[in-house]
Amino acid sequence: MSVLLEKKMIRASLTTFRISNVVHMHGGAVRALAVADGGVKTPSQHGGTDARLLSSAAAASQRVRLPTIKTNRPDARLLSSAAASEELGSILTREINEETDASPEGTMPPEMQELYTEVSQKWTVLEGISGIGGGETGSGATVRMIRKEAGSKGAKIGIVFHCQDTEPDFVEMNESNLFEDGNDDEEEDEDSQAIRFGVTVSKQGKTVVLQCRVGVESLHVDRVTVRDGDTESVLASLANGEGTHAALYQGPDYEELAVDLQTAFGTYVEKECGVDETVSNFMLMFADYREQEEYVSWMKAAVEILD
């Protein structure tokens, strides 16, 4: 064997040895270098077999994964959920305390108590759907009133309203107040509310229902219907939410009735049914009182469930 051939075989053996070492290397960046004759040769210069070995080495290095480290830290999602519940409960409790401090639950303001006592002389006031202090959550929002004395024709008269069935009271403008300076009452007018209510007039198993609206200055009749049933049953149906979308005929379009007929219905509600200024003021004030009571009750029920 010639010396030249022997040197070539030695160089080939060294090259193969170095490539084999590269195949077993692990790291982020694998480079296969074949050093021969004092120069740097790329894998393609050593034939297809060497290139496949280098490619395999690079793939193996990319499959290296760091070991999973287990910790005892609680799940961040659980912490977030608990914190959200605690925050909501804290805010609800704060609101409950603020409301009850300003107005103790179940305690009427003196002015409201005085008006309630006056109205109760002529009317039986029932809070709740099923009677005084109705058991279902939120049922106290509905108020029924039954007149203790029958009408002049022997009819039994009742009233029903919901504490949230209110709206801004828009005072009608006329010549007497068009040019008046209303600065003194500007703030009061902005806060004025009107309430919608139903008046029932029952006799011999039939009932006329007058859907009305009253504000601080005037009373309006919006619709008149006739139906079967006595005062108690009709009031209960209205208290449970039966309204203008019921299956029964809802009466004519009230605005299309003769003007004097509309006026006569309004006078009947005030004079014959006894929905005078005192009763109107009572409904407005009592609706506000009941809404406040139901608001506190709503928060207490919510915090018991959510906190």
Notes on the protein architecture:
It is a single chain. With 307 residues, this protein is of the alpha+beta class. It has two domains: 3-62, no CATH class; 106-171 and 191-294, Mitochondrial Matrix Protein, Chain A, CATH 3.10.280. 44% of the residues lie in helices and 20% in strands. It contains nine helices and eight strands. The strands form two sheets. The chain has a six-stranded antiparallel beta sheet, sandwiched between helices. It has a two-stranded antiparallel ribbon with strand order 1-2. Helix 1 runs parallel beside helix 2, helix 3 packs antiparallel against helix 9 (277-306) and helix 4 packs across helix 9.
List the helices and strands and how they pair.
Elements: H1 3-23, E1 34-36, E2 39-41, H2 48-62, H3 76-102, H4 110-119, E3 123-127, E4 142-147, E5 156-168, H5 175-178, H6 186-191, E6 193-203, E7 206-214, E8 219-228, H7 231-239, H8 259-271, H9 277-306
Antiparallel strand pairs: 1-2, 3-4, 4-5, 5-6, 6-7, 7-8
CATH topology (level 3) name of the largest domain? Mitochondrial Matrix Protein, Chain A
The helix/strand series, from N terminus to C terminus, equals HEEHHHEEEHHEEEHHH
Distance between the termini: 93 Å
Assign the CATH superfamily of the largest domain. Answer: Mitochondrial glycoprotein
CATH class of the largest domain: Alpha Beta
Percent of residues in beta strands?
Answer: 15-25%
Q: Number of DSSP strands?
A: 8
pLDDT averaged residue by residue: 75
The backbone outline, from C-alpha atoms, is elongated
Structural class: alpha+beta
Main sheet summary: 6 strands, antiparallel
InterPro entries: MAM33, MAM33_sf
Protein name: Mitochondrial glycoprotein domain-containing protein
Pfam families: MAM33 (PF02330)
